[in-house]
Amino acid sequence: MTKPIKIDVWSDVACPWCYIGKRHLEAGIAALGDDAPEVEIEYHSFELSPDTPLDFEGSTVEYLSRVKGMPVTQVEQMLQHVTGVAANAGLDYHFELVAHTKTLKAHELLHFAKEHGKQLELKERLLKAYFVEGGRVNRIDQLVGFAEEVGLDGSAAREALESGRYAADVQADIAQARAYGIQGVPFFVLDGKYGISGAQPAEVFSQAITQVAGEREGSAA
Amino acid sequence: MSGSQVADASSVANVASATDASQGADASAEAGPAASPFTMVTGDPSAMICTDDVCFIPGADWSA
Fold it and tell me: For chain A, how are helix, strand and coil distributed in percent, rounded to 5?
């Protein structure tokens, strides 16, 4: 039996292009239909903006203009563009609801979920919470709720978050990204060999996966 | 719009043969990090990435 093609993804919960890239990857795999090789996707932690305050009170426009010093018109244009691309990917972004915060606790929960076989479900839930619903992905009570929604044990999730048991795993992922020279996300690694940077179109993922599968067949022949 | 562009098949074919991690990034990988041990799939050069709070097209001077 052939080993699944491993797809490692460095991504942040607070990264709009990571959610779009996730959709494009999923679409790229789906487009291969019955011929799709088996893939195994694993998400890795990446903290885009470590200086983000834990609880910024205000809109995304206010955050980027006030804290980052970006012109309001540029921010609005940027968010409008992202929202449009997200819509094309089937995502209903609401930047007016987004609650800027640090994402380290969310990443800890993703490691907990990985250990319990629910990482993909939780990743989707957290991204939706952040970009669509305005969820506070740094607050343990909310994170426990998201964990329970995807079938994880809430008490165990709470214990993991309160103890910080996965904090070192999060930092290890971030350090690995740095060692790989990953400076922006999303960043995809196929089969440990091929790097794909950015929210590439679905076709790019389809073709890259097909190529990896073909190389495997070639080397097995 | 970057996310909806269809990648040119030839750009995907720009995947070179696998490199040894010690060889560093493929020279054709403009969008990839300089020290990447991976062979970069060029794909759509206008695909967006995020760094810090800014999302942009690598190599371009337009942020979005």
Answer: 55, 10, 35
Best probe of the B interface among A12, A180, A200, A207, by most B CBs < 10 A, is A200
Neighbours of A149 (CB within 10 A): 13
- Tens digits of residue pLDDT in A147-181: 999 999 999 999 999 999 999 999 999 999 999 99
Give CA–CA dist A89/B39, Å, rounded: 27
- Kindly state the tokens that stand for A92: 């209903």
Q: How many CA atoms lie within 13 A of B55 on its CB side?
A: 31
Tokens at A101, concatenated: 């915060």
Residue A13's identity, in one-letter code, is: V
pTM: 0.85
Min Cα distance B13 → chain A (Å) is 8
> Which residues, in sequence order, are bridge partners of residue B56?
B49, B63
Tell me if B38 and A194 make a contact (CB, 8 A cut-off).
yes
Burial B31-62 (b: 16+ CB within 10 A, else e): bbbeebbbbbbbbbbbbbbbeebbbbbbeeee
Cis peptide before A186 (omega within 30 of 0): yes
